[in-house]
Amino acid sequence: MKKVKLSIVVLSYNTKDLLKNCLKSLEKVRNEVEFEVIVPDNGSTDGSPEMVEKEFPWVKKVIKIGKNLGFAAGNNKARYFINGVYVLFLNPDAQVHTNTLFKTIKYLDSHADVGALGCKIVLPNGQLDKDARRSFITPWIGLTHIYLKLDRIFPKSKLFAKYWYGYISPNEEHEVDSLQGAFLLTRKRVLDQVGWFDEDYFLNAEDIDLCWKIKEKGWKIIYYPEVSITHIKGAAKGKTKETKKKVNLKEKLKYRLAEVDAMELFVKKRLWKKYPLALNLFVLTGTKLLRLIRAIRVILLG
């Protein structure tokens, strides 16, 4: 089967309008690099797969999974249809700007030691999506970022703002621990080397875990802010004003608690052997408390 330069994987789950806009943005930049698009669909009931087949016949493959497998397992379904040297995981609530594909692919072509690359991610209001670049969670970063939120008070402190790299300009290219799954560009051979996404994760932290595995193999991970995408963050999870009414309470609760469950899983998988048992148990106690707080908040506030 013919090789292409880039395979773009856009996981779909009841985001028909967002997915349409995402694919329209890709349609506008088809001349920048030779790419194929694969859309794994996690059992959408809003007509997303049919819309793609009807309105975007150039999309190589729509994988109708039939049920919601989550982010990791859903994206992994695309691995059997990939013909690209590079693979881009792109959220359906993202829109790609001119030159983003061209310049990021060019960067990887000329930096053989880079295993994954991210770009600047901009929210609809023009602000930076801080999750575009992240440090791995440690007990200290968990304390300062999640619980005490000291990085909001001291956003440029090297001591307190490690998670979002607040002490480094968002306009500066630099090496990071982790990228966001909204735009995560890597090499097919790197994915094969590390085993793609860990399917123990249902939603959240699977991008962080993938980056952990990539770095563990000696590859660099780079934040490259010369180009950007727009990210309508949280739309697929019912977090925006426009989508809150479309996602029922049960789904909202599952999404919000999945974030904490993923955090706990990451601690057990990647950090457990690095710290004393007492500290690990303290961290897990904190995640249990956070889970309870979030559940109460979703039930009361929606």
TrEMBL record:
> Which Pfam families does this entry report, sorted A to Z?
Glycos_transf_2
Q: Where is the Glycosyltransferase 2-like domain?
A: 7-136
Highest taxon, organism lineage: Bacteria
Q: Which PANTHER family match?
A: RHAMNOSYLTRANSFERASE WBBL
Query: Could you identify this protein by its name?
Result: Glycosyltransferase 2-like domain-containing protein
What is the phylogenetic placement of the source species in the record? Bacteria, Candidatus Woeseibacteriota
